[in-house]
Design goal:
By secondary structure, the chain is mainly beta. The chain has 4 helices and 14 strands. The strands form 4 sheets. It has a 7-stranded antiparallel beta sheet with strand order 3-2-6-9-10-5-4, with helices on one face. Strands 1-13-14 form a 3-stranded antiparallel beta sheet, with no helix packed on it. A hairpin with a 5-residue loop joins strand 2 and strand 3. The longest helix is centred in the middle third of the chain and has 9 residues. The N and C termini lie far apart (about 40 Å).
């Protein structure tokens, strides 16, 4: 099968997200200039550089009460900071609860019963029990083709790692089992790993 996206795929559901899988989930927490906290998951998320460490996520829709975007991007525009909270399998249900198109006044931490902690390097809340948190300072927001597509880039200015996830000096993902997004309404979880040496190593 071949199709041009501009012509449509002819399938019951868009296969694009099912092709690019699995995708890590960036559970993005932000605090508005008014002090209001927000928490929402994004599956267009990844690390993009080592030195300095940098991450990105993309927001691809808008809410009527935020104009051209959603709460996360709107608050990051205001404050210039955000936190990436890593999602473990055990948090799948509360993460999903925060994915709704809630009104801007809703604090998703409170909505889903998620314990907050304050970030250390930035003025923002983080998910206290997350396996890891990446405190980020905004570097740029890039408007992508499409009505509400924004890619947000940030430099990591602080890193939290849960103590039980560090084994023999290594951050061990099998201690918490990362949740990943697939296509449609599907998710997957990391329960095994293996290593490969690069040529010449």
């Amino acid at each position: 099968m071949f199709y041009r996206p501009e012509d449509g795929h002819g399938l019951p559901h868009n296969p694009f997200n099912a092709i690019v899988t699995p995708r890590p989930i960036g559970w993005i927490s932000t605090r508005g200039s008014d002090g209001h906290d927000n928490l929402a998951p994004y599956s267009f998320f990844n690390a993009v550089a080592y030195f300095p460490p940098q991450v990105m996520f993309s927001s691809t829709s808008a809410k009527p009460d935020r104009g051209d975007t959603k709460d996360s991007v709107s608050q990051i525009r205001d404050t210039g900071v955000f936190c990436v909270n890593i999602v473990e399998y055990a948090m799948k249900d509360v993460m999903n609860q925060t994915s709704g198109a809630w009104d801007r006044e809703v604090d998703e931490f409170e909505l889903a019963g998620i314990e907050k902690a304050e970030c250390d390097a930035i003025n923002c809340a983080r998910v206290a029990a997350a396996p890891a948190n990446l405190e980020c300072k905004l570097t740029q927001i890039v408007q992508l083709p499409g009505e509400a597509n924004f890619a947000v880039f940030g430099e990591v200015t602080g890193v939290h790692m849960r103590d039980d996830c560090i084994v023999d000096g290594i951050f061990d993902v099998l201690r918490y089992n990362p949740l990943s997004r697939m296509g449609y309404r599907d998710y997957t979880v990391v329960r095994e790993k293996f290593s490969l040496n690069r040529p010449g190593e």
